[in-house]
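A further point concerns the way the authors explain their paired sequence and structure data. Since the whole study asks how a given chain folds, the encoding of that fold should be made plain. A single example would do more here than another paragraph of explanation. An entry of this sort, consisting of the sequence and the corresponding backbone structure tokens, reads as follows:

_____
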Amino acid sequence: MATISDVASRAGVSTATVSRALNGKSTVDPELVARVLAAAAELGYLPNGPARNLRRQEAAVLALIISDVENPFFTAIARGVEDVAHTVGYSVVLCNADENAEKERKYVDVAIQERVAGVIISPTSTATNVDLLINRGTPLVAVDRPLPERTSDTVLVDTRLAAHQATEHLLAQGYERIGCITGPAGVRTADDRLAGYRDALRSAKVRTSPRLVRRTEFKEAGAGRACRELLEQAEPPDALLVANSAMAIGVLAALRSHSLRPGADVGVVAFDDVPWAGLVDPPLTVVAQPAYEIGSVAAQLLLARIADNGRAPTTTTLGARLIERGSSHRT
């Protein structure tokens, strides 16, 4: 079994640095933390996290409350959280809020009852309430969406900028009536993607029209209905920006039902790179978000918060990248 000295040797640091890094001490340089975590993972080193938490009368468990377990974006976040947690002896309990504020509240209650060491949450909406966690002093990190009216450690992606760039790409391909299918009003990521879309049209001096925008749940069925509504208008869009990969499935099905081919007839760009995106015909142009990195950064922040709950909150904003494929290129 690997020892702390083995980890120190592999990472090229002292055993004291390994100890501080694995305990989430904020005095350790993030680059060194990453090296230590990588070395611990390679060697299979597991510190005695459960015993350490028993002294605090907490379970060596982190609760991860995500918005939609069926969305590959959130499952990739979960993998990033679990990989980091595992290296320091924590287990992760996955809770699916299903974009439902009531389910989310129940999982918050469970986290408190089970005395978890910390919580990572992707807030469902403006109805999210974490007062019970905050009042109890439970370490907390928000991912993908900030907590409404609360300050906490947060890990985000600049999706407004990403949506702007995706819309610019469609304009550069010669599409003129670009539509947007996004999520419910009040959900930060849905609002930001719509705002970025409108930013790009304004910058290009292209007139925006509410008739080209649809808001629906972040699901395949809702996006399919929205797409069909747009296509059946007198002046349908010739391109679409779609807010996530589940919605993209509904959009692609709606296009097929109208005998329209992505790229040739209607340009399509969707958020999130998923395994099937490159396999459809034509392959789907996507905005790839660093979901795994969101999870791993959030877990490191939570471990640091567990070690020192008096630290000043931080917001980490990661970038996304456009991967151009056939669905957004006229043929």
About this structure: The chain has a mean pLDDT of 90. Residues 21 and 29 are 9 Å apart (CA to CA). The radius of gyration is 22 Å.
